[in-house]
Amino acid sequence: MNRLAATAMNILRLLPRATLILMLLAAPVLAVPVMRADTGHTIEAPAHKNTSVGFVLLISLQRG
């Protein structure tokens, strides 16, 4: 009975550490489907402002 109690105490002592390691390893794997499911937030570049400088340069070069 003493050997069984020692084995049980050893397992109970290592259980929190093993649980923490498994949680740290599983967190990125479990986070990937959550990130793929959320398609509402898309980062896009701001719209390019057209200043028409190219058109003005084209007209002025054709006149010269």
Could you give the topology of this structure?
Layout: H1 2-37, H2 53-63
Describe the protein:
There is one protein chain. This protein is an all-alpha fold and about 60 residues long. About 75% of the residues lie in helices and about 0% in strands. It has 2 helices and no strands. It has helices at about 1-35, 55-64. The longest helix has about 35 residues, at about 1-35.
Short description:
By secondary structure, the protein is mainly α.
* N-to-C span: 104 Å
The structural class is mainly alpha
Gyration radius, to the nearest Å? 32 Å
Shape descriptor: rod-shaped
Mean pLDDT comes to 79
* Estimated share of beta-strand residues: under 5%
Query: What's the count of strands?
Result: 0
- What is the N-to-C order of secondary-structure elements (H for helix, E for strand)? HH
Low-confidence stretches: none
State the major sheet.
Answer: none
Approximate helicity band: over 70%
What's the number of helices? 2
Supply the key terms.
64 residues; rod-shaped; 73% helix; mainly alpha
